[in-house]
Amino acid sequence: MHLPYAEDLEIRYLSRLFDNTSECYKFFWFQAIVSKILEGKRRISFEELIDEMIADAWYMVTEYHLNLGPKDNLEALVNYIQTVTQMRPSEKKSNIVSFLKRSTDKELINRKQILKRNVPYRLQAPFMKTMKGTAWKVSERDLIERINQEPNLLYYFDCFNGLQTTIRIEDDWFTYIHENQAIIKGWLQYHMICYLQKRNPSVPGIADKLYPPQERKLEKVKKYWKLLLSIRPVQDIYGQVQLTGRDISIDHFVPWSYVAHDELWNLSPTTRSINSSKSNYLPDWDTYFPKLAGQEFFSYKMMWKYDTVRDAFEKCAREHLNSDDVRQRIYRQGLSCVEFSKALAEVIQPVYQSAKNCGFKNWIYSCEI
C-alpha cells in the first residue's frame, strides 16, 4: 500500500516508519499523532499522546484479549489500570482519557515514563541516516538536542520536560496528513493488522478489533426466535428463565469479542439482564453446552417441521450462516439429537478452547449478579 506523493516531503521515509517493529508502540504513537493533528493540534505533549495510546489500546487488551507483544509495557499498563479502576472493557474512550488526565496514581505515572523513553525518538529513525549505534544511547535531553538538528522531520521537540515535553508538528506534514487522512489511516491500519495477526495467530477477525465494539445487528435472529416462542415456550440456557417477546436478547455463546462474527450456531436467546451479566465471559462448557445443544436442536426440529420457521431460518442464514460446510454438518435434515449435539460441539468447541487459551474467563450465571 503506497502513500500519496508530495514534492517537498520525504514520503519514502514516512512509508518506512514500521519497517523494524518488534513492539506495538510505534503504531499507537503515530496513530495518536494523526488523531491530534486531525483535531487541529500542532503542539502536543508526550502525556497527551501516551493517554491517547492507552485509550486506543484499551479495547484490544481488555475487551478482545489481544497480545500486543512480548512483555509489552503498553499492554501491561492497560491491565494495571483496568485492575485498579475496574473500568469496563467496553468503557467509552472519552471516560478513559478523562481518568488518565486526572489520575495522580504514582505507579501509573511511572509506567507512563517508561513508555516515553524510546518511541518518541525512534519513530523517525528512517529520516535520520546519521543516527546510528551509540548515537541513540544518550540521555533523553541530549537525544532531543541531537534530533532537533536533523532536517525534514515530521516533528521536532520543545525543551525536555518529562511527560510535559512537547512535540511540534511541521507545517508541511500537518497539511499532508490532513489532506491525505483517509489513505494514511488505511495504511496505518494495514500495518497494525499485519503486526497483530503475527502476535495473535489463532485469533479471528483482527481487522474488527482495532476499535471499540459496535452494537451487533441481530434483528433477524431475534425475529426468528420470537417466531419459535410463539410455537412453544423456550427457556434461556443460563438462568432457566422462560423467554418472552418483550424481553429477549441474542447472546454470543463464545463472545463476539473473540469470534468477531454473528454466525447462527454461536447465537442463543436470553434476557437482556442475563446477557449483560455474561458480558464477554466464556460460559462454563460442562454446565451450558448441553443446554445450548438442546435449545438449538429444538430450533432445528421446528425448522424442518414448519414451512414458516424454515422461511425465517433461511432469511437468517443468508446473513448469519456463511459456511456451506457448517450448514451441511449441523443443519442437514434427518439428524437425531445425539448427532446434532455432536456436530454442534465439533464446530463450537475448538473456537471455545481457543478463546479460553487467549484468556477469556470462565463464567457461571448467578441471579445475584
Strand order of the largest sheet: 1-3-2
Distance between the termini: 48 Å
In the predicted model, the low-confidence regions spanning at least 5 consecutive residues are: none
Amount of beta strand: 5-15%
Q: Biggest sheet, in brief?
A: 3 strands, antiparallel
* Helix amount: 40-55%
Number of helices, where a helix is a run of at least 4 consecutive DSSP H or I residues: 17
DSSP summary, beta strand count: 7
The helix/strand series, from N terminus to C terminus, equals: HHEHHHHHHEEHHHEHEHEHHHHE
Apparent shape: elongated
* Number of individual domains: 2
Helix/strand-derived category reads: mainly alpha
Mean pLDDT: 93
Radius of gyration: 25 Å
Pfam families: HNH_4
Domain HNH nuclease: 243-283
InterPro entries: HNH_nuc (IPR003615)
Keywords: Endonuclease, Hydrolase, Nuclease
Question: How is this structure best described in words?
Answer:
Residues 243-283 form the HNH nuclease domain. This is HNH endonuclease. Keywords: Endonuclease, Hydrolase, Nuclease. GO terms for molecular function: endonuclease activity. InterPro entries: HNH_nuc. With 369 residues, the protein is mainly alpha-helical. The chain has two domains: 11-209, no CATH class; 219-363, no CATH class. Helix content is 53%, strand content 6%. It contains 17 helices and seven strands. The chain has helices at residues 11-14, 25-38, 46-63, 73-85, 93-102, 106-115, 119-122, 140-147, 171-179, 181-199, 219-231, 256-259, 272-278, 285-305, 307-320, 324-331, 337-357; strands at 43-45, 155-157, 166-169, 249-252, 267-270, 282-283, 362-363. The chain has a three-stranded antiparallel beta sheet. It has a two-stranded antiparallel sheet with strand order 4-5. Strands 6-7 form a two-stranded parallel ribbon. Helix 2 crosses helix 3 (46-63), helix 3 (46-63) crosses helix 4 (73-85) and helix 14 (285-305) crosses helix 17. The longest helix is centred in the C-terminal third of the chain and has 21 residues, at 285-305. The protein is elongated. The model has no long low-confidence stretch (mean pLDDT 93).
